[in-house]
Structures are given as C-alpha cells and as structure tokens.
Design a protein that fits this description.
Elements: E1 9-13, H1 24-30, E2 35-40, H2 48-55, E3 65-68, H3 75-93, E4 99-103, H4 112-123, E5 129-132, H5 137-145, E6 156-160, H6 165-171, E7 177-181, H7 187-197, E8 203-207, E9 215-217, E10 232-237, H8 255-258, H9 262-276
Parallel strand pairs: 1-4, 1-5, 2-3, 2-4, 6-7
Antiparallel strand pairs: 7-10, 8-9, 8-10
Helix pairs in contact: 3-4
The structure holds S-adenosylmethionine.
C-alpha cells in the first residue's frame, strides 16, 4: 500500500557521459527540488554519474547524498552495503521528499537502480518508484563509432563478457551483433577469439563514451596486454554469420531477400494487395 508520508524514489538515467544525452525528463527531475543520491564505489570517492550532471552545468545541492556500492565479489560485504544504502534511502524518503537516484547510462540496463529499488521496497513496500529511461552506453558507443547495431531482421545480443569466450564464440554464430559489456577483465581472451574468428576488423572498443577522456579503438589487437577502464565495451559484428532459410514473417525476411532490388521492394505492397484481392 502506498504510504503518503514517503517521497517517491526516482531513478534518473543520465546517459553514459555526454550531458547532451540527459533526457528532458531526467533534467526536470534533477531540478524538481528532490533530494539527490548518487552511487560511489568508496566513501569520499568521486561519482561518474555526478560528473555528468556537473558537466551539464547543474550545481550539486549541498544535501546530495553519496551511497556506497563497493566493487567486490564478497557477498557479505555487498549484502551489507546494499542494506545500508536501501535503509538510508528509506530514511530519506520518510521525510516526504522525493529522492532522485542518479544513474549512469540507462537505469534498466545492468544498473544499480533496479536492485536498489527492490531493496527499498522490501523495507518500505508502499514507496512509489519511477524509472526515467535513458541512453545506454552501447547505443551511444554505436553512434560514436558509426556502427549500426541491427537493421531489418538482424539480431542483437547484449551480454556481460564474463560469460567467457566459449559462450561468446557460440553467440557469434547466432547473432549479427554482440555487445560485450564489462569487458575489462576479459580483454585479452576476447581479442584472441576475435583474431581467430577473423572478426577484428568488424569489432570496435569504446571506453568512457561521452566523457572528456572517451577512447574509441578500431585496432583491437593493440589492446592486448593493456589495462582498460571498467567503463568500456565492445561492439562485435559477424558479417559472415550464416542463417537458416526458414521463412520469416513479413518485415523479418531471410537475409537473401534483404538484398532484393529497390524495384522488387516497392512492388511488394502491390503483390500483397493482389494476393489479398484488394487491389
Ligand atoms: C554496471 S554496467 C552499467 C551500464 C549502464 N547502466 C548503461 O546503461 O550502459 C557497467 C558497464 O557498462 C558499460 N558502460 C557503462 N558506461 C560506459 C561508458 N560511458 N562507456 C563505455 N562503456 C560503458 C561497460 O561495459 C561497463 O562495464
């Protein structure tokens, strides 16, 4: 049941780095008088999400609150941090003021916000939650590198690279484009796989897209043996992927049909009408 005393918890997606990609709705939420909360990896550490807003020209309110989400695999440490963060959110929401949580990229894409909202609701089931969608890092990376993620009936998969190269190898045969998120710890293995598969030329590496120190790398072999930033991803395309010829529904035709001449394509609606007896 909604508790009127509580403010709303708002997940404001800020896009991956360029403040020009903050949506009008997120911008309005930031300026609505709501209290701000933002994620940091350690107390006193800078916040990437907060930096996006600063670059956009907004002053950070004095009462903005940092919530610590440590980067660790220690389950106990993580559970304690989540409980602490969620408890603090509930305390703030109980003051009756909305709480806007700043999210890098999109709040529904591998983001802290979903987990935080669930944890808050467990503690205070009546709290209203709003998610403001935004530009995910891979969409901005595709735009910056001129990569088309998918067109017509092409397939696209977005996965964390920590599934490992065996899974990535298999998915390369099933999807036209793979987005490999969280690629940092797997860089060398993934580059080796792409070398073996002859896919280096159709792959891109993008680090901190939209930030002042953004890095776009075409020569993926040059990344081997180097350390990359956590905020990095790969866009991998497999132009040689073979498909079965199972006819798909209109709008999702097999690849061969895609290269039909422009004349054929423009004739199609007429043929459909003829078949339906409506011309
Ligand atoms: C916890 S996820 C956050 C994803 C984010 N919510 C989004 O919508 O893109 C972190 C991973 O997202 C990717 N990522 C996030 N921001 C990025 C950026 N600015 N540039 C490149 N990759 C980024 C990286 O793969 C990173 O390891």
């Amino acid at each position: 049941m909604h508790t009127p005393r509580h403010g709303r918890l708002i997940g404001a997606s800020l896009g991956p780095g360029d403040p020009g990609l903050i949506t009008r709705r997120a911008w309005a939420a930031l300026q609505s008088g709501a209290r701000w909360a933002y994620p940091v990896k350690r107390a006193e550490e800078s916040s990437y999400a907060l930096a996006i807003v600063r670059r956009g020209g907004l002053a950070v309110p004095d009462d903005a609150e940092a919530l610590v989400f440590p980067m660790t695999h220690d389950a106990n440490l993580l559970a304690r941090a989540w409980t602490r963060a969620a408890t603090r959110c509930v305390e703030l929401l109980a003051e009756g003021r909305d709480l806007v949580f700043l999210v890098e990229g999109d709040a529904s894409t591998f983001a802290t916000f979903g987990h935080l909202a669930r944890a808050v609701r467990e503690l205070a089931p009546g709290v209203a939650v709003e998610t403001i969608p935004g530009v995910p890092s891979f969409a901005a990376a595709a735009a910056r590198t001129g990569v088309t993620l998918a067109e017509e009936d092409e397939t696209l998969a977005v996965i964390p690279a920590n599934y490992g190269v065996a899974v990535i190898d298999r998915l390369l045969d099933e999807f036209d484009t793979l987005v490999l998120m969280k690629v940092k710890p797997r860089i060398d293995e993934v580059v080796t796989l792409l070398e073996q598969r002859g896919l280096l030329a159709s792959s891109r590496f993008v680090e901190r897209v939209g930030a002042p120190d953004e890095r776009l790398v075409d020569d993926l072999a040059s990344l081997k043996g180097t350390t990359v930033n956590y905020l990095s991803l790969m866009l991998v395309q497999n132009p040689r992927r073979t498909r079965d010829d199972t006819p798909r529904q209109r709008g999702c035709r097999p690849r061969r049909a895609k290269v039909a001449s422009a004349t054929e394509m423009t004739q199609e609606p007429e043929r459909e009408q003829e078949k339906a007896g409506t011309s």
